[in-house]
């Protein structure tokens, strides 16, 4: 079951095309990473999903039906550019946002008590937003985003302004929301966070989607046939199809090697040859990280566009 389906969406602003035939599918109960460099079209797509703007071409389905205005009561959105009223008190502001999302004042207060205790912010209740640090303001905006218990939560750079401790607190809350059945679209430039949190990703560059899939599938797709092996022994000959690129010597016998194989050589074949010669302590494949994949695909996409324009 998918909570959100974006189908062949395009968006134009005067002579600029912000999105070109973009389709994505967000599975129910998943954390979905929306990735791309600045100006790629991520924010334009988020604004269409949140109904701030409309697509010029294409359609958006929410929970299997065409997206409609009332669906915003079931969607929470934390924008990259924060939308708090700086002269307004924290408590008053949170109550105001909660009631905009359809909660009664009584129900909003009940839920806010839980979040105030959880984030230890009781002393902030009467403070004006402008008195708070950027990280504190971010906590307030996060609460406002999730307080109405939306089915779909969209977080645009949610860790901006957070120190590592508070970033870890928000990470834990995101994972708890997922456990409760929420679906989360997570837009970020932090690739280490993508690997830590996301189940699925889409990469947008220059208005087009250039990659989509589960994080595991994407990493497998771009594997480089490089392995690490730790062993004890003196001599290792794995054959002409397998190259030993680097050897680190711990002592006379204990070694760590980096191995590169041709594509048609399986890990089992490499390991089988090795264990007949040495005592293998560890053997693992080095899959590329999301950062490396991101840089590679964006560079290739930009080079292709440059060639086509010449």
Question: Quick summary of this structure?
Answer:
With 310 residues, the chain is of the alpha/beta class. It is built from nine helices and 14 strands.
In the CATH hierarchy, the third-tier topology of the largest domain is known as Rossmann fold
CATH architectural group of the largest domain = 3-Layer(aba) Sandwich
Class derived from helix and strand content: alpha/beta
> Largest beta sheet: what is the strand line-up?
6-7-8-3-9-10
Order of helices and strands: EEEHEEEHHHEHEHEEHEEEHEH
User: Mind telling me the C-alpha Rg?
Assistant: 24 Å
Q: Alpha-carbon distance between the termini? A: 44 Å
> Which band does the percent of strand residues land in?
25-35%
CATH class value of the largest domain: Alpha Beta
Tally the beta strands.
14
**Count of discrete structural domains:** 2
Question: How many helical elements?
Answer: 9
Which runs of at least 5 residues are low in confidence (pLDDT < 50)? Answer: none
CATH superfamily of the largest domain: P-loop containing nucleotide triphosphate hydrolases
Tell me about the biggest sheet? 6 strands, mixed
Q: Helix content range of the residues, please?
A: 25-40%
């Amino acid at each position: 079951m998918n909570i959100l389906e974006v189908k062949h969406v395009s968006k134009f602003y005067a002579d600029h095309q912000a999105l070109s035939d973009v389709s994505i599918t967000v599975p129910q109960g998943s954390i979905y990473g929306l990735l791309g460099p600045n100006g790629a079209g991520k924010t334009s797509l988020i604004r269409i999903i949140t109904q701030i703007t409309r697509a010029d071409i294409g359609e958006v389905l929410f929970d299997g039906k065409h997206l409609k205005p009332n669906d915003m009561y079931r969607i929470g959105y934390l924008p990259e550019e924060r939308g708090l009223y700086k002269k307004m008190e924290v408590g008053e502001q949170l109550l105001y946002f909660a009631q905009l999302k359809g909660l009664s004042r009584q129900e909003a207060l009940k839920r806010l008590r839980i979040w105030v205790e959880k984030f230890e912010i009781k002393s902030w209740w009467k403070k004006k937003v402008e008195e708070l640090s950027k990280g504190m303001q971010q906590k307030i905006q996060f609460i406002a985003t999730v307080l109405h218990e939306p089915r779909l939560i969209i977080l645009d750079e949610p860790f901006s302004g957070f120190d590592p401790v508070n970033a870890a607190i928000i990470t834990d809350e995101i994972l708890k929301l997922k456990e409760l059945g929420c679906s989360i679209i997570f837009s970020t430039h932090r690739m280490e966070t993508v690997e830590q949190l996301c189940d699925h990703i889409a990469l947008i560059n220059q208005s087009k989607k250039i990659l989509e899939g589960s994080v595991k599938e994407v990493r497998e797709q771009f594997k480089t046939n490089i392995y690490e092996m730790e062993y004890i022994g003196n001599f290792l000959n794995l054959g002409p199809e397998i190259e030993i690129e680097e050897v680190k010597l711990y002592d006379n016998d204990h070694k760590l090697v980096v191995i590169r194989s041709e594509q048609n050589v399986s890990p089992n074949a490499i390991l089988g040859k090795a264990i007949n010669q040495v005592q293998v302590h560890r053997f693992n494949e080095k899959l590329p990280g999301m950062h490396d994949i991101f840089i590679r695909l964006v560079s290739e996409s930009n080079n292709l566009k440059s060639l086509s324009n010449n």
